[in-house]
């Protein structure tokens, strides 16, 4: 039995769950999410928690069991508390600002880069700490958008300039050695 799959997903009091065949809809204060899981999996709501069951010990069913439960857990967490990723900008002249809903990045290129957020995603920029905070209910969209922004100017190993995750450690290289 999958260690992750057998755990129940606890439903917070402000979250509504609707299961229609192989489609689950989760509604909460931070937004609405839906996910179409495999028809082989059995998802049921019992005593304020969601349980995922698999029909057999087949390899594909075992793989889907834990994955389905984890995705449902992320949906419930997302609509109740939300997810966030924090990026940090390092470099002289590199900066970010929010214009309307869009994020405008000046990263040393000849043009500014404008990032439009998908529905439900919001940006917050702290100019003093040079940080970009990406928040939203969908963990996958928040992570993907953070990675797309990081790819605009990834951190380089010599001076550490670029965009990095807040908790990321950059392995620094030594520069040119002097004549000796």
Mean pLDDT: 93
Uncertain runs are none
CATH topology of the largest domain: Outer Surface Protein A, domain 3
CATH domain class name of the largest domain: Alpha Beta
Helix and strand content put the structural class at alpha+beta
Alpha carbon gyration radius: 21 Å
Any idea what the CATH superfamily of the largest domain is called?
Ribosomal protein L6
Q: Given the C-alpha coordinates, what overall shape results?
A: elongated
**Largest sheet composition:** 4 strands, antiparallel
Can you count the beta strands? 13
- Order of strands, widest sheet: 11-12-7-13
Gap between N and C termini, in Å? 64 Å
Q: Beta-strand level of the residues, as a percent range?
A: 35-45%
Which CATH architecture of the largest domain?
Answer: Alpha-Beta Complex
The helix-strand sequence is EEEEEEHEEEEEEHE
Which characteristics define this entry?
180 residues, 13 strands, single chain, Outer Surface Protein A, domain 3, 3-stranded antiparallel β-sheet, alpha+beta, elongated, 2 domains
What does this structure look like?
Strands 11-12-7-13 form a 4-stranded antiparallel β-sheet, covered by helices on one side. Strands 1-6-5 form a 3-stranded antiparallel β-sheet. The protein is of the alpha+beta class and 180 residues long. It folds into 2 domains: 72 residues, Ribosomal protein L6 (Outer Surface Protein A, domain 3, Alpha-Beta Complex); 83 residues, Ribosomal protein L6 (Outer Surface Protein A, domain 3, Alpha-Beta Complex), CATH 3.90.930. The model has no long low-confidence stretch (mean pLDDT 93).
